Amino acid sequence: MKLTYYGHSTIQIETADRQILIDPFISENPHVRGIVTVGDFQPDVILITHAHGDHWGDTEELALGSNALVVANFEIVTYLATKTGHQNVQGMNLGGSFQMDWGRVTQTLARHSSSFPDGTYGGSPNGYLIESGDDIVYVAGDTAPFVEMQWLGERHDIDVAFLPIGDTYTMGIKGAVESARMLRPGITIPVHYNTFPEIEVDVTAWESHMLDAGFRTRAMRPGETLSI
Ligand code: NI
Ligand code: MN
Q1: pLDDT in tens, 66-85
Q2: Long-range contacts from 103-107, C-beta under 8 angstroms, 24+ separation
Q3: Could you tell me the distance, in angstroms and rounded to a whole number, from the CA of residue 162 to the centre of ligand 2?
């Protein structure tokens, strides 16, 4: 499995000859300016955690351009299909799993909100547990810490967790350390920080708190790839 981080909460997973793009916020994402453009992506699958503009991002253009399968909650895929005519969608909801030829995704709880940039209701926000072969990746989405993370950590041997650390709209540094204690991932990658003034944090401070708690971290530069 190859994991590429594009800043904010945009992640691409490559596995079994498939490209899975998560929360494709690209054209308005300051982290990838000069690194990639929307036209550089040809995803097979797009996973959306919630409808906020910094996660919904360029989904409409990417879905129509690639005919990717768009996986998201029922409200989000209905909005996409109705607005654009894109029919290659799979609606889900919290606790549900969906099997594809390359792996399985499960929608996990996220404590947040979800509405589209135009104000349309976006259903329940979520995270994803992504399983492919022996690898398990957890993408928390925008969320506060929640105690069910303990349950996720006890039942799944999570190799990599992507956790928001930017504060203000999601958990911050301390919340992300508390979340790691519950999830016990092999490695934790911070997301959702340093994109806007309200989510500027000292990532090295987070890393040292994580190290003190006994956890491995990897703060990825936008465009950087990690193989697991
Ligand atoms: Ni959000
Ligand atoms: Mn967000």
Answers
A1: 999 999 999 999 999 999 99
A2: 103/15, 103/16, 103/130, 103/131, 103/132, 103/133, 104/130, 104/131, 104/132, 105/47, 105/71, 105/129, 105/130, 105/131, 106/131, 107/73
A3: 13
User: How many C-beta neighbours within 10 Å does residue 154 have?
Assistant: 11
Q: Residues lining ligand 1 (ion), CB within 5 A?
A: 52, 142
192 alpha carbon – ligand 1 mean position (Å): 9
- How far, in Å, is the centroid of ligand 1 from the Cα of 23? 11
Looking only at the bridges linking them, the beta strands covering 11-15 and 2-5 are: antiparallel
Q: Which fold has domain 2-219?
A: Metallo-beta-lactamase; Chain A (3.60.15)
Name the pTM for this structure.
Answer: 0.98
Return the domain boundaries, the chain. 2-219
